[in-house]
Amino acid sequence: MASMPPARRRSPSAAPSPDISPADYGPHGSPEAMRQFAQYMQQGMAMQLDAGTRDLLRQELRQELRQDLRDEIVKELQVELREQTRAELREEIKQEIIEAEIKARVDAGLKSRIEAEFKACVEAEVLKRLRVYIKEMEMARRRQFGRSTETSSAQYRLFDEADALAESSSDADDQAELPEENTRTTPRKPAKPRGKRQPLPADLPRVEIVYAMPEDERTCPCGCTMAEIGESVREEIDIIPMQIRVLRHVCKRYACSRGDSAPRTAPTPLQVLPKTNASNNLLAMLLTTKYVDSMPLARFSNVLARCGVNAPRQTLARWVIGAAQALQPIHNLLRDHLLDSPVIHMDETTVQVLKQPNKKTGSPGYMWVQKGGPPDKSVVIYDYDPSRSGKVPLRLLAGWQGYLMTDGYEGYNAVGRTEGVEHLVCWAHARRGFVKVVQASKGKRGRANEAMDMIGRLYGIEREFADATDEARLEARQSRSKAVLAELRDWLDKMLPLVPPKTPLGQALGYLYRYWSRLVRYVERGDLPIDNNRVENAIRPFVVGRKNWLFSDTPAGAHASAVVYSLIETAKANGREPYAWLRHVLQRLPYAKTADDYEALLPWNLSALELVEEAIRA
Asked: Per the record, which residues fall in region Disordered (predicted)?
C-alpha cells in the first residue's frame, strides 16, 4: 500500500479536502473519488471568489429568503386573521340577530302596550269630554227650558236673580187617576198645595150672558111659583180673532156757492208714516208682535196674507224703521231722564247685523242696555253700536255722575275711572262661579258651598229689607252685611293659596278677589243695588226675540230695534200694556211739537186703565 503524502497547511478559509489521497484523483480512480474530486474543484473555485461578491450574494439571498419568509408569514397571518375575523363576525352577526330578535319582541310588546295605553288614554279623554259635553248640554237645556234661577237648596232661593213665573199649576185635572184594584202602590210624597186661581183683570170688558129658567119650569111640585133668590156666576176668557179692516178716510170738500173764497177740505187724522197705507194702529200692532211677542216680520207677513193683505217682509221692515225714526224724540227724552238717575245699571249683549260697513258679513254688533230711575219712573234704554270697546259706555254716559253697576267686563273700567263715577260690580256674577262648582260636585258639599252660604246671608239681609227705607237698609248693611263681608274676606284669603287658579273654584276665587273693592261698595249707601239683575231682566226679552228673528239686515234696522225695545221695556217697567201705550203714542205723535208734548206721552204720565179702555173702544 502506498505511503501517505505529507500534510499541507490550509488557510482558515480553505475548504476541507476530501479524505482521499492524490493518487485517487487519477483516471484509474473510483467513481466516488471522481465525484468528490469534482466537488472539491467546485469548492476551490468558490473559495477563489472575492469577499465583496460573496457579501452581495449573501445579501441577495438574505433578501430573497426574508421576502419568502415574509410572504409565508403574511399568508399565515392572513389566514389566521381571516379565521379570527370570520369568528368575530360570526359572533357579531349572531349577537345582532339575537338583539334584533329581542328588539323586535320588545318593540312588539311595547307597541301593543303603548297602543293599549294610548287607547285607554283616548277612551278616558273621550269619556271626559263626553261628560263635559253632557254637563254643558244639561246646563244649556236648563237655561233654555228650566228655571232661570240658580238654586241648590231652599236656602239659596233667597237670592234668585228672578223669581220663577209659577211654582205650581192651577189648571190641573179635576180628577186624578185611581190605581186599579189589587195593585200595589208605593207611598208618594205629599203633593204641593195647588195654587189659588187669580181673578181676571177688572179692566177687561165683560159681556154678561144671563141664563134664566122658563116660567113653566119654575113651578114647584106644591103648585106655587118659585122666586129668584140669587145667582151663580162663572167667568171665562174669550178671545176675538184679529180682524183686519180698511179705513176709508173720506174728506169732504166745500166751496162757496158764490165763488168768493177758496174751497176747503175737512181735516183728517195725521199719519206717522205719510204716503203709506199703514194706519197708526197697524204700526202699533206690528211693533208689538215683533218686539213683545218676538214674531219675525216674515211670520207676521204670513198672518196678514191669511187675511188677504199682501205686505211683504221688506215693506214691513221699512214701516218698522220709519216708525222708530218717528219715535226717536221719545227715546231721546227717556235718555235725559236716565242721566238724571243717581244709579245706572248697564250691560251689553250681541246682535248680528248682516250688512255692516267696514266689517265682515255677519259680524256681531252689540246692544248696550242701561236702566235707571226711581221705581215709579223706571227707564230702560237700548243703544246699538258695532263695537264693544270701552269708548261706547264713555259716549253713552258722557257728562253723567253717579254709581254705575256692571258685571266684571273690563270695557266699563274707563267709565269707572271718570271723575264723579263710582263703579260697582254685581254680586250675582261673583256668585255664579261658585254655583257652577256646586252643580259639578253632584251634591257633595265642598268649599264652594261655604262661599255660597255667606253670599246667601248677604242676599238674605237684602231680601229682609227690600221694602224698608234707604236709611233702615243702610243701617242693616252697616251692622250686619259688613260683618258677613269681613268673614267672607278672611275665608277668601285662606283659600287663595290652597286652590289652583285655573280650576273652576280657583277662577271663582280669582273673580271674587279681583273685584272685591267694587263688590263691597254697595254697603256705603242704602239706595245702592247689590247686583245687576235689574238690567239683566230688561235684556231677557231681547235675547228671546233674537232667537226668533236671529239678525238685523242693516245698522238702520238695529238702531230701529234699539229705539222700539227702549220704549216697550220702559212701558213694561212702569206697568203699562205695550200695545195700548204704543197705540196711544202713535195716535198723538204726529201732533207733538214741543218737549212738553212729548213729555205727556211718557208711560208714567198716562193711566194704565185709561190706555186699555182707549184701546178697547177703538
From this structure: 1-31, 166-200
